[in-house]
From TrEMBL:
Protein name per its UniProtKB record: Protein of uncharacterized function (DUF3791)
Organism of this sequence: Roseburia inulinivorans
Pfam families: DUF3791, DUF3990
């Protein structure tokens, strides 16, 4: 089998995984990969990519796409109507510290907003769409996987509160219903870091892990522009 054919097979696997992870259609992923010359760059690094895990191949592809495009569409679900992001209203003891939280998945933000409307007994909710431009002036922290560093970062922010870091923006997995039990067991010192990571990786195989993008400084908000706000009425009232 030639290197090109071998790389084509690997790229198909990566495209399928990428589409599932970011909730994109097959055509959209193909367009994205072509635009950013992902296949060509995978072919150049063919020998390296076949010596590492599939997770590391995905990380390589995500970095290729991220380096080529520094604009990211993010969504925020809420029951509140506002024109400007106010960091002073941010909740404390969150995964990545006090800040304004968004997701790259519109469906996820809508689900969060709907759940919030149930808790707060609201008649409706909103999904905000923002365009974030990542520029070199911003200090951005990325967690590409569920690992000990991510776990310890969440533990510090959730246990101490406030902002336990100096990043403008943090991007990484959400400690949601599927992962929170493990995180809490680790925070309570019932699980070691190694045990917790092993459970998280098993959970990742059996459940979809969503990502979040959090903004923590006024400097970061200078590069976040509101695109639109969509309102929804609850149909179960």
């Amino acid at each position: 089998m030639s290197a090109q054919t071998d790389c084509e097979m690997l790229s198909i696997e990566v495209m399928e995984a990428y589409a599932g992870k970011y909730n994109l259609s097959g055509n959209k992923v193909v367009e994205l990969f072509q635009k950013n010359q992902v296949f060509e760059k995978m072919l150049i690094q063919h020998e390296y990519l076949h010596q590492v895990s599939f997770e590391e191949v995905m990380e390589f592809v995500e970095n290729v796409i991220a380096d080529a495009s520094r604009e990211l569409v993010v969504y925020h679900g809420t029951c509140s109507e506002f024109e400007k992001i106010n960091l002073n209203k941010s909740h404390n003891r969150r995964d990545f510290g006090k800040g304004f939280y968004t997701t790259i998945l519109q469906s996820q933000s809508k689900e969060w907003a709907y759940r919030l409307s149930l808790r707060e007994k609201r008649n409706g909710y909103y999904v905000y769409e923002f365009l974030f431009e990542e520029v070199p002036a911003l200090k951005v922290k990325r967690f590409d996987r569920l690992n000990e560093e991510w776990l310890e970062f969440i533990k510090k922010n959730r246990s101490k509160g406030g902002l336990q870091h100096d990043y403008d923006v943090v991007i990484g997995p959400v400690a949601d219903d599927n992962t929170m039990e493990t995180v809490q067991l680790y925070m309570a010192n019932i699980l070691t870091a190694e045990e917790a990571v092993e459970r998280l990786r098993y959970n990742k195989v059996n459940n979809k892990v969503n990502n979040q993008v959090s903004f923590h400084t006024e400097k970061a908000l200078q590069y976040v522009k509101l695109v639109r706000r969509v309102s929804y009425a609850r149909k179960d009232i």
